[in-house]
Write a structure and sequence with these properties.
Layout: E1 2-5, E2 11-14, H1 19-47, H2 53-78, H3 84-89, E3 91-95, H4 103-119, H5 123-131, H6 138-143, E4 145-149, H7 181-192, H8 199-217, H9 227-247, H10 299-304
Antiparallel strand pairs: 1-2, 3-4
Helix pairs in contact: 1-2, 2-4, 7-8, 7-9, 8-9
């Protein structure tokens, strides 16, 4: 990855194109340009056969310049750095700051490309691309451009390795509430890119991150646990707690975070259970009063049929 700094002081991580992909893109562009040049030349020879030799030579030179030099310049300018060959190979020409190229960049690249690609059969361009740290040829150096890859192949760099099995559940009692989110993000980024780092640099980063996490949790890092394994185990414990909190799963460890108060369980009587007794109603002949409407006439009737405990057999409490 190559770090480019834009005019707004923003660092861009771009992957420069190397010699094989650039050479393939140039060959495709040259094949298309030569095919167009041959077709235009045949058409001009057939239509200008009556002209003298000087006129035909001038037309041939003009056709060469327009097709093999002006054509690639116009295509790169209009497509913002994507010619046919570069589009097929997933490449693009950008400025040194990562922005799109303009006509002056394409003009300088095209004019110098005549010397280092057409006249020397690409020898100078290959040598310059091999020597340059970013794979740039002379046209890119003078124009201030860079060829980058737009289609980056999939890699397993985003895979986070799991902790060792012997650390499962060991840090379930840690208090992780004081660890900030930016520190968790730094730990996750380190674990996903640990395989791409130098061994000494990666170990130093792991020690520093483990010390920061241990300072926030209040428990030191065990001596027998390597810092990368400690970070992986603590991060997995944090993810397990977040999963249980989000999906309401049952806790499996002693130090798991509580999920929340459980809903009260209401027992349901089976179908074969005898229905509860119905409280006796008022004697026959007395006026019926709805139970939901309190009145002074039905209060003595209700209280007269209550059991000694003061409650109805069905659990209904009369209004006061």
């Amino acid at each position: 990855m190559s770090e480019l700094v834009t005019g707004e002081a923003v660092a861009l991580e771009l992957r420069p194109a190397r010699l094989p992909s650039r050479a393939l893109a140039v060959l495709l562009d040259l094949a298309v340009a030569v095919a167009v040049y041959v077709a235009v030349t045949v058409a001009l020879v057939a239509s200008t056969s009556s002209l003298d030799g000087a006129a035909q030579t001038a037309l041939t030179i003009a056709t060469f310049v327009l097709v093999l030099v002006g054509g690639p310049i116009a295509v790169e300018t209009l497509s913002h750095g994507r010619s046919l060959g570069k589009l097929a190979c997933g490449l693009r020409v950008v400025r040194d700051d990562g922005g799109p190229i303009r006509f002056r960049h394409s003009l300088v690249r095209g004019l110098i490309g005549v010397i280092e690609i057409l006249m020397t059969f690409g020898v100078i361009a290959c040598i310059a691309s091999l020597v340059s740290a970013r794979g740039r040829r002379l046209g890119d150096v003078f124009a201030g451009t860079l060829v980058v890859r737009e289609r980056v192949p999939f890699s397993s760099g985003g895979f986070m390795p799991p902790p060792p099995p012997w650390l499962a559940g060991r840090f379930s009692g840690l208090d992780l509430s004081a660890v900030p989110d930016d520190l968790w993000l730094a730990v996750r980024q380190y674990l996903t890119r640990a395989g791409q780092l130098d061994s000494r640099v990666g170990w130093a980063m792991a020690e520093r991150l483990a010390a920061d996490v241990a300072a926030r949790t209040g428990a030191p890092v065990p001596r027998e646990v390597p810092p990368p394994a400690y970070l992986a185990a603590v991060l997995q414990e944090r993810q397990a707690r977040e999963t249980r909190r989000a999906f309401g799963g049952a806790s499996t460890g002693e130090g798991a975070a509580p999920v929340g108060p459980a809903a009260p369980v209401v027992p349901v009587a089976p179908a074969s259970t005898v229905p509860p007794p119905v409280p006796p109603g008022p004697p026959p002949g007395s006026p019926s009063v709805p139970p939901s409407v309190p009145s002074s006439q039905n209060r003595p009737e209700v209280s007269r049929h209550l059991p000694p405990g003061g409650r109805s057999g069905t659990g209904f409490v009369p209004p006061a």
